[in-house]
Design brief:
Elements: E1 2-5, H1 9-21, E2 26-29, H2 40-45, E3 53-55, E4 61-63, H3 65-75, H4 86-115, H5 126-149, H6 160-175, H7 184-194
Parallel strand pairs: 1-2
Antiparallel strand pairs: 1-3, 3-4
The structure holds glutathione (GSH).
Residues 8-10, 32, 37, 49-52, 64-65, 118, 121 line the site of glutathione.
Amino acid sequence: MKLHESPSPNARRVQVFMAEKGIDCERVPVDIRAGENLTPEYLAKNPGGRVPVLELDDGTFIAESVAICRYLEALHPEPNLFGSDPLEIATIEMWQRRAELNFMSEVAGAFRNITGFFKDRETCVKEWGEVCAEKAPKALNMFDARLAENQYLAGDKFSNADITLGIAIDFARMVKVVEVPDLPNLSRWHAEVSARPSFSAE
Ligand SMILES: N[C@@H](CCC(=O)N[C@@H](CS)C(=O)NCC(=O)O)C(=O)O
């Protein structure tokens, strides 16, 4: 098994997930800045042209960070990160999707459109980036309220939802295009998840 990756938030979601599970595999660096992910060779692995991609020993390719993590969870069910009973599975999925759709996607929209980081391959609209940058911090209030009553997003158990939001916040802080407000419950939770050894994994 090989993980095609780059220093990027979506690849990091798989890196942290694997570290939580104690899984390791060969890593294949992909230089997305130089457009290695857009070559015909790479597009044959993932027609979506993004990282990460997991290559299986039989030559199968799995793209999409959540699909990769679900595959790994099915192979290595413990520690469980996607839930183990119907309600827990749905709760983790709900918070995972909220983290991805309401915050991570907005941060990505702000980053891509304001900085023009990928302007060699897409049209960047600065005004749209600014709309995303304005929406992203507002979404954090929903997570802060949830974390006032719960240790983790899905309840008392660390899950894939925490990985998505934690990494999206780290990325927002790193690229500095989205303000991350200092909300008390979110800050308490972020300090806790950041202290997990998996959050330092590469
Ligand atoms: N939904 C995909 C998103 C993957 C994605 O957007 N990856 C970024 C890095 S974080 C990428 O490959 N960007 C290169 C590009 O846009 O050309 C997933 O979860 O894996």
